Amino acid sequence: MPQSKYKTIMLKLSGETLAGPEGFGINAQKARDIAQRVKVVRNLDIQVAIVIGAGNLWRGRTGLEMGMDQATADYMGMLGTVMNALALMDALEKINVETRVQSAIEMRAVAEPYIRRRAIRHLEKGRVVIFGGGTGNPFFSTDTAAALRANEIGADVLIKATKVDGMYDSDPKDNHHAKKIDKISYIEALNLRQAVMDSTAVSLCMENKLPILILDFWDKSALLKAIRGEKVGTLVSD
C-alpha cells in the first residue's frame, strides 16, 4: 500500500454522518462505519484528530427561528457535539482504537478538558483525539473549531468531509454545467462564497497556510484515496 502523504490529519465531520435514514439522531451502524474508516487510516501510522458537528441533534438556526438567543442556541449545539463525540469514541473503542474526547466546555465526568499539549501527546501515543464543544464560544461554527484545533496541533491538512465531491465554479444545483475545481487558492475559495465551508475557517487556514481538502465522505473510498495522495475532491491552498 502506498505511504501516506500526511503525518497528522484533522478530519471535520458533519453531525449528519452519524444520522440514520431519517436524518436525525445517532445511528449505531453509521458510527461503526465511520470508526472502521478511521481505523484504516490510523493503521497507516497517521495521527488522527476529529471535530464533529451536531446537525443531527440540533442546529443553532433552529433556535433562532424559535426566537431563542443566539448564544444560548450555539451553546446547545456545542453540547450536541460532545454527545456525537462520545458516540464516535464508543464505536472506535469497540474496534480497539484507543480514543480520547476533549471538550472546550468543561464536563470532566464525560470528557477531558481541552488542553493543547495533552492532545498532542495523545496523538503521539497513537490515540485518536475527538474535539467536542466547538471553540467553547458562541458565534463560531464547528468548521472554525476544526481549523483552530488543526492549527494548534500542527496538522498537515484539514479534511472537510461533506456530501459533495468538492467545490464547483457555480452551484451545481442551479447550473448543470458547473465545473468541478480540483485546486483553488484560499482567496478564490472565499470569493466563490459557497456554503461548503465557513469563511472564518478558510481565513484561519489561509493565515497559517494549512491546506484544506474537501471531499465526499459518502464515497467510502475517498478518505483513503486522499490519504494516499490520489486525486480526489478539491484542494484549497496557496
Structural class, from helix and strand content? alpha/beta
Question: Rg, please?
Answer: 17 Å
Order of helices and strands: EHEHHEEHEHEEEEHHEHE
Could you please say which CATH topology applies here? Carbamate kinase
Q: What's the N-to-C terminus distance?
A: 29 Å
Mean pLDDT: 93
Strands of the widest sheet, in order across it, are 4-3-5-2-1-6-10-11-9
Strand content: 15-25%
CATH architecture: 3-Layer(aba) Sandwich
What report would you give on this structure?
The chain has one domain: Carbamate kinase, CATH 3.40.1160.10. The protein is 38% helix and 19% strand. The protein contains eight helices and eleven strands. The chain has a nine-stranded mixed sheet, with helices on both faces. Strands 7-8 form a two-stranded antiparallel ribbon. Strand 1, helix 1 and strand 2 form a beta-alpha-beta unit. Helix 1 packs across helix 3. The protein starts with 7 loop residues before the first strand and ends with a strand. The mean pLDDT is 93.
